[in-house]
Amino acid sequence: MTSPYKEIDVSTWPRRSTFEFFKDFEDPFFNITANIDVTSLRRFCRANDISYSLAALFYSQQVVNSIGEFRVRLLDGKVVEFDSVESTQTILNDDETFSFCYFEAKPTVEEFAAAGRKAVEKYRALKTFDVETERIDLVYHSAIPWVSFTSFKHATRTGRQLSCPRIVFGKVFADGESEKMPVSVEVHHALIDGVHVGKYFNTFQEMIDAL
After folding, report:
1. CB distance 104 to 156 below 8 Å
2. Count of C-beta atoms within a 10 Å radius of residue 42
């Protein structure tokens, strides 16, 4: 179900000039890739028998909901802010193709992981890209668990109304006594700036360090 939203009055919006500058770019998206220290999250998941991939998705979803700019979208020529956003993520099929899965928000990581396992079974059977396609109150997640990448580029449709953030998790790797995971965050520059992406990385790190 689509989350409620409010329209932003661009004429009084503090980032009006930035919005006006970037909104008509042919490719207004920018990407930042950095490593997150996931040592505490990996330890937490092992101790509680929780899927690491689903836990990472849960906490990422918690982070984007805590940052207002990650809930802002373009809708029919207007700028709107949703009360909350949810996630889709790529899943690997048995024949090495991939498809999309919708993950409904839950209040705890345990509930999210339990529901997420059922969602993966459901959408793996459906094997479709047509997942919540009419909604924009989503963040598009992907997982590339085979590569500890240092950069990432998405395939992109043309169209200036596209505005959902896209986040990719890479392969966890050892760094001394720590475990780290590359994370790519790609966002629409008319709606989100580097400072907000920085908040995503810092908040994500703080949240999982507290586990």
Report:
1. no
2. 19
Q: Do 61 and 120 contact (CB within 8 A), yes or no?
A: no
| Cβ(140)–Cβ(157) below 8 Å | no
Q: For residue range 82-114, what is the model confidence (pLDDT) as tens digits? A: 999 999 999 999 999 999 999 999 999 999 999
Q: Which domains does the chain have, with CATH numbers?
A: 5-209 (3.30.559.10)
3-state secondary structure of 168: strand
Contact assessment for residue 182 and residue 167, using Cβ atoms and an 8 Å cutoff: no
Alpha-carbon distance of 118 to 91, in angstroms, equals 13
3-state secondary structure of 166: strand
What Cα–Cα distance (Å) separates residue 196 from each residue in 46, 148, 189?
Answer: 31, 24, 10
d(CA 41, CA 63): 14
Q: What is the 8-class DSSP label of residue 4?
A: P
Question: Is the dihedral angle over the CA atoms 48, 53, 58, 62 positive or is it negative?
Answer: positive
How many other C-beta atoms can be found within 10 angstroms of the C-beta atom of residue 34?
16
Strands 173-175 and 178-188: antiparallel
In sequence order, the β-bridge partners of residue 159 are none
d(Cα 191, Cα 188) in Å, to the nearest integer?
6
- For the beta carbon of residue 96, count every other beta carbon within 10 angstroms: 6
Report the percent of the chain where pLDDT is more than 90.
Answer: 93
Q: How far apart are CA 136 and CA 85, in angstroms?
A: 8
- Residues in the chain where the model's pLDDT stays below 70: 158-161
